[in-house]
Design goal:
By secondary structure, this protein is mainly α. The chain has helices spanning 4-11, 14-28, 31-42, 47-54, 58-77. One of its GO terms (molecular function) is sigma factor activity.
Length: 84
């Protein structure tokens, strides 16, 4: 379905479309999984620092990261072919 919003999205530079898709995928994550992902994978924090910060034990903290990564991969896999 060709909607005005889809048309505007298609006119954006590829880098902006990638950024918007990434933000949409992050927004779909549970808050604690999103926090673990950003703290660990983006900011480089270790689980020993992240777990107490979020009030989690180490195993659930690691699981949140695995879940976040899996959901981001699933989101990527559902993008239309040819979409960055």
């Amino acid at each position: 379905m060709d909607t005005p919003s889809a048309h505007r999205h298609a006119l954006l530079p590829a880098s902006e479309r990638v950024w918007q898709e990434f933000l949409a995928a992050l927004d779909e994550l549970p808050p604690d999984a999103r926090a673990v992902l950003l703290l660990h994978d983006v900011l480089g924090a270790g689980f020993d620092d992240i777990a107490p910060l979020l009030g989690l034990e180490l195993p659930p903290c690691r699981r949140r990261l695995q879940q976040a990564r899996a959901r981001l991969r699933a989101h990527r896999d559902h993008l239309e072919p040819g979409t960055p």
